[in-house]
Amino acid sequence: MNSRALIRFSKPTSCLVIIFCFFSLLHHCASGEQELGLCDDLYQCGDIIAGFPFWGGDRPEHCGLPLLELHCHKNTSTSLIISDKEYSVLHVDQTSYTLTLARADLLGPFCSAKFNTTTLPPDIFDVLPTYKNLTCPKDLRINIPVNVPMSFNPEEKEFDLNQLESVLRKGFEVKVMIDEITCQECLASGGICSFNGTTQVCCKTTSSSSRVTCLPKPQPSATELHNLCSKRFRCGDQYHLLYPFWIPGREECGHPDFKLECNTSFAELNIASVKFRILEANYTTRIVRLARSDYLGDLCPQDPSNEPFDKNVLLFTPNTELLTLFYDCRDFSFSTVVYDPTYFSELGCDGVVGRSYYVTRNLSSSLLDGARDLLNILSVLCLRNVSIPASGLALETLQKYPTPYNLKKALEQGFELGVTRDCFLCTDSGGACGYNHKSSGFVCYCNNGPYDRICGPGKWSHGSSLLAAVLGLLIISTLFLRKRKVSHDRRKQNLKALIPLNYYSYAQVKLITKSFAEVVGEGGFGTVYRGTLSDGRMVAVKVLKDSKGNEDDFINEVASMSKTSHVNIVSLLGFCFEGSKRAIIYEFLENGSLDQLISSNTSMNMDWLALYGIALGVARGLEYLHYGCKTRIVHFDIKPSNVLLDKNLCPKLSDFGLAKLCEKKESIMSLLDTRGTIGYIAPEMISRVYGTVSHKSDVYSYGMLVLEMIGARNNTSTGNST
């Protein structure tokens, strides 16, 4: 074949090759777009219409979340397998990403059900707050909880099995937990929302290669997170909101339980299936005020739920009390209970069964001790009780003027919460409060990265000479303070680890004592203040004086009291150990100390039986310290001011600042200092000439205390410990 013929043959061959490549490229481009197109539109599965994030049937797996595979049963029904349990899908709302589910085994008669316990994965499904868990009566032998509407309350009448079956067939609504904002941004950019395993991605066709690439949402930088969470946002009538609240697009800036629902009038959130409305959020005073939405303007809402408020994120301020409402109470006029009507009144919501009442104090408050019989009757004869946080000042007004108007006003004023210490430490250091979804905990977003609580040092923008001077000063300070700081931090860490008690920050101590408003006693080691915990319990808070030498005394007291549990030993409830700020929180005893009692009554006028009971109680407390504890505790400061009395004059030993722990087999103790109070201190404590120091030194002090009680001698006590 000559060259001319070869050329004539090559021309059409080249054209065929070019045409083949063109169509191959066109097919590849079309296949990429077609692959994306499969995930774009809604599709029919069984008797429902669905789309992202679901897949199954004719829809490929990459179009949805792997766990959300729909099983299409021709045109009759649709099902979903969740935790190895089949659920019937009754409806899908693609706008709000909610679906209505019903357990397949509960669609028929109860007799044919298997009643296997199953749970919905909380990271994928969130049951809407209009539904609740219901456990069936024990006589039905059904020990699994089922999801029913909040309005379904079979306990108000005889349990109707047919009614329950009807409710379960209608199913319950859940929301699929996806990143809606990211998906909307993906759709707006021409992409398709999809999943790569459990990671949500945005799939697009690249213009250069016509290939489909799926990428997750890019992680924001530290500066972007700091800027986002520092910026206040609006929700309803609230214009300056920050942590712990959040709205879609600000997931990293708020606690998961504090997602807001915004409309034109107000901002609301659901906490433990109860809806609250934000009345005020003041980040200058660090006070947030909320109110229960269902009680705004209505004292008798339908089916109110009683759920405890989660105080882990926002803390009750000392001014917050609990108002308890009792509904549908049967007649208890047969009872002859005598009680103080100050804290009780009728609510005015007459139900099917009977009347309703309210109590204006925490049910655990000591102010209600005289009405325990009445409270027990209400708990038995009333079908429902609801505890609602409210302002203590508003409740005091309600006690003076118990009218429906004042009750409604107390509920409408809401209750106050304080921002946690972690958050205001973060903001004070220049950071922004947020939430780390990987560690499921608080995080402080700073310009140079995330921190646990306080922003660390960033980059310096000053001159090199100033930088050198500052660094030099820091080095000198670090070398000087390092040993003391390490020792203090280690001791603090060991103290918190070894003592099984509640730890309170100094800011929390200030809230409990209302900024140290009421002094109830003073001693050589510090001042005692009256306080109130968030649950309404009255407590005594002993704040130690700021000094370098009393750290061991503080640790002694906390360690000693934490090892005790006796009716004649004061109960320790918590402690604070924050630098030089140290405080001990223990039960509040109404009758003060023994020295106050015997100083206001002469021994001739006091009841001898009461004196005997006090002396016997102190002796039993000492016996417990010396022989009842695993490790013997020697008090070393037994005196009337360290014996506290409750409302029944039951004595309790307190103030363990000078106490010393020792093994029971040790009969002789070695002390380098003199401990005790003049007038009660044992002679061997002053000079070893009189004998060796042991637990019997407490017995001598006890003898001095008894002598003073019966008026046989007057001590020369100055009230100071040495």
Automatic annotation (TrEMBL):
Molecular function as annotated in GO: ATP binding; polysaccharide binding; protein serine/threonine kinase activity
Signal peptide range in chain numbering: 1-31
Pfam families: GUB_WAK_bind, PK_Tyr_Ser-Thr, WAK_assoc
Sites where the protein binds ATP: K542
Gene3D superfamilies to which the protein is assigned, alphabetical: Phosphorylase Kinase, domain 1, Transferase(Phosphotransferase) domain 1
Recorded superkingdom: Eukaryota
Top class in the EC scheme: transferase
Start and end residues of each Protein kinase domain: 514-722
Swiss-Prot/TrEMBL keywords: ATP-binding, Glycoprotein, Kinase, Membrane, Nucleotide-binding, Serine/threonine-protein kinase, Signal, Transferase, Transmembrane, Transmembrane helix
Catalytic activity field: L-threonyl-[protein] + ATP = O-phospho-L-threonyl-[protein] + ADP + H(+); L-seryl-[protein] + ATP = O-phospho-L-seryl-[protein] + ADP + H(+)
EC numbers for this chain: 2.7.11.1
Alphabetized InterPro entries for the sequence: Kinase-like_dom_sf, Prot_kinase_dom, Protein_kinase_ATP_BS, Ser-Thr/Tyr_kinase_cat_dom, Ser/Thr_kinase_AS, WAK_assoc_C, WAK_GUB
Membrane-crossing residue ranges in chain numbering: 460-481
GO cellular component, one term: membrane
Record's subcellular location: Membrane
PROSITE patterns: PROTEIN_KINASE_ATP, PROTEIN_KINASE_DOM, PROTEIN_KINASE_ST
Membrane topology recorded in Swiss-Prot or TrEMBL: Single-pass type I membrane protein
Annotated PANTHER family: LEAF RUST 10 DISEASE-RESISTANCE LOCUS RECEPTOR-LIKE PROTEIN KINASE-LIKE 1.4, PROTEIN KINASE DOMAIN-CONTAINING PROTEIN
Protein name: non-specific serine/threonine protein kinase
